[in-house]
C-alpha cells in the first residue's frame, strides 16, 4: 500500500505554509509584465505555474486566498473537500476526487479572491492533487487568513473558520 510519506519522499515534496506538502512542477518561460496585470499584482508573473499538493487527513489546508483562479486536479487517494467563503459571506463546499458518480469532481476551479480551505475527510488517509494558477503564482499573491479577522468578517461561519485556521 502506498503511503503519504512514500509519495512525499518520491516527489520531493516540501511543507506548505497553509498545511500539507507541495512541489512546483511547472513555471512557464513566458512572462506577463506588471503593467499588463491588475493592480492586485506586484511585479511580473509567469504565464502559468503548477504544483503537486499532498494533504493528509490529520492536517488541513488553512483558509487563504490568492489573486488568481486556482484549478485543482485530483490524482490519487481519498477525496478532498474544498470550503470557500466569498467576500459576500456565501459558503460553498465541493469535493474533488475520482468517484464522479457520487458527485466528486476530478478538477475544480477556486475563483480568485475567494477564501478557501481544504480537508481530506476520510480518517487515516491522504490525497494527492495538483494546482494550476494563471497568471503564475508568486507568494506575493498569497494571503493566509488570520482567524480573528475571518471570525469578525464572517461570524456566521465560526465553526468552519475555527476548524480550518491555525492563528
Task: Present the secondary structure layout.
Elements lengths: L3 H7 L3 E2 L5 E7 L3 E2 L12 E2 L2 E8 L4 E6 L2 E9 L2 E6 L5 E6 L10 E4 L4 E6 L5 E9 L7 E3 L2 H7 L4 H6 L4
Antiparallel strand pairs: 1-2, 2-5, 3-4, 5-12, 6-11, 6-13, 7-10, 7-12, 8-9, 8-11
Largest sheet: 6 strands, antiparallel
Number of helices: 3
* Large-scale geometry: globular
| Uncertain residue ranges | none
Look at the structure and give the CATH class. Answer: Mainly Beta
Strand ordering within the main sheet: 1-2-5-12-7-10
Q: Please tell me how large the radius of gyration is.
A: 16 Å
CATH architecture: Sandwich
Secondary-structure-derived class? mainly beta
Mean pLDDT: 97
Number of strands: 13
Helix content: 10-25%
Q: How is the CATH topology named?
A: Jelly Rolls
CATH superfamily: Jelly Rolls
**What's the end-to-end separation, in Å?**
35 Å
Describe what you observe in this structure.
- With 167 residues, the protein is mainly β.
- It has a single domain (4-163), classed as Jelly Rolls.
- It is built from three helices and 13 strands; from the N terminus they run αβββββββββββββαα.
- The chain has helices at 4-10, 147-153, 158-163; strands spanning 14-15, 21-27, 31-32, 45-46, 49-56, 61-66, 69-77, 80-85, 91-96, 107-110, 115-120, 126-134, 142-144.
- The strands form three sheets. It has a six-stranded antiparallel β-sheet. The chain has a five-stranded antiparallel β-sheet with strand order 9-8-11-6-13, with no helix packed on it. The protein has a two-stranded antiparallel ribbon with strand order 3-4.
- Strand 8 (80-85) and strand 9 (91-96) form a beta hairpin.
- The longest helix has 7 residues, at 4-10.
- The radius of gyration is 16 Å and the shape is globular.
